[in-house]
């Protein structure tokens, strides 16, 4: 219960702080308007400030354009890299499977050869036993 009460009190204090900040912002805006009205007679300062502001805005636009271009080139680079990676991984898989299939063929051929040799030996043993019993 104390945590709920504490959170309610902190929410209330946050709301009061926010409304006080809004009041200060409104008062500051009014004082800035008064200050700007006082400097209207000084046209060169205002034009210079506007020129500086427009230069900064141009820098922002240029930087934003460069970032956008970098993002696009990065996306393209990663897509190409991903495609190359996928192709190489598939090729590695295919080569490994082919090696294992060749190994399986060799094992089957060896097994068949062993079975054939075993049959010849079995026949030779039978012949030897048959001749020794006679």
Automatic annotation (TrEMBL):
Amino acid composition bias (Polar residues), ranges on this chain: 1-10
UniProt keyword list: Coiled coil
Record region (Disordered): 1-45
Stretches assigned to coiled coil: 83-117
Basic and acidic residues bias (residue ranges): 18-27
The protein's name: Uncharacterized protein
Species: Lupinus albus (White lupine)
């Amino acid at each position: 219960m104390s945590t709920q009460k504490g959170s309610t009190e902190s929410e209330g204090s946050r709301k009061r702080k926010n409304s006080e900040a809004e009041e200060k912002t409104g008062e500051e805006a009014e004082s800035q308007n008064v200050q700007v009205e006082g400097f209207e007679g000084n046209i060169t300062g205002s034009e210079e400030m506007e020129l500086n502001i427009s230069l900064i805005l141009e820098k922002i636009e240029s930087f934003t354009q460069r970032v956008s271009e970098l993002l696009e080139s990065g996306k393209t680079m990663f897509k190409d890299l991903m495609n190359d990676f996928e192709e190489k991984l598939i090729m590695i898989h295919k080569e490994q499977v082919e090696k294992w299939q060749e190994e399986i063929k060799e094992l089957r051929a060896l097994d068949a050869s062993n079975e054939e040799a075993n049959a010849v030996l079995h026949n030779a043993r039978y012949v030897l036993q048959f001749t020794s019993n006679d």
